[in-house]
Amino acid sequence: MPATHEDAVLMVELAKWGAMIGLGEASQAIFADDFDPDAADVSNPSVHTMLVHGETIGTLVKNGLIDRELIYDWLWVEGTWARVAPAAKRLREQAGEPRLYENYEALAAGQSQS
Questions:
Q1: What CA–CA distance (Å, rounded) separates 31 from 3?
Q2: Eight-class DSSP state of 2
Q3: How many CA atoms lie within 13 A of 43 on its CB side?
Q4: How many angstroms from the chain centroid is the CA of residue 112?
Q5: For residues 54 and 101, is the Cβ–Cβ distance under 8 A?
Q6: Is the pTM of this model over 0.85?
Q7: Helix, strand, coil shares of the chain as percentages rounded to 5?
Q8: How far apart are CA 56 and CA 58, in angstroms?
Q9: DSSP of 31-72
Q10: How confident is the model over 44-60, as pLDDT tens digits?
């Protein structure tokens, strides 16, 4: 089913929220030449921002509250997940909680298959 006007409104609200939490700066930081995904930690503000944003969007998609294809058309979920995944996976291991950031990861995996 194609995206709806409601999806578009929510997408704009997510874009506003992303701006408020510094998503643009976080994106620049995680794609900078000196960023090392394997050494990055969730305590890094840019990594944390990207994880919170990605998990929120992944949760909305998982629960059918925003159109998956609209998100894939808007965001490079697979690419951002690849940059922050090592930090997220280390936190899962440390916390003993495999569900941490699972919706972001699933959304990214789905984008690579679409």
A1: 29
A2: -
A3: 1
A4: 14
A5: yes
A6: yes
A7: 70, 0, 30
A8: 5
A9: TSTT--TTT--TTSHHHHHHHHHHHHHHHHHHTTSS-HHHHH
A10: 999 999 999 999 999 99
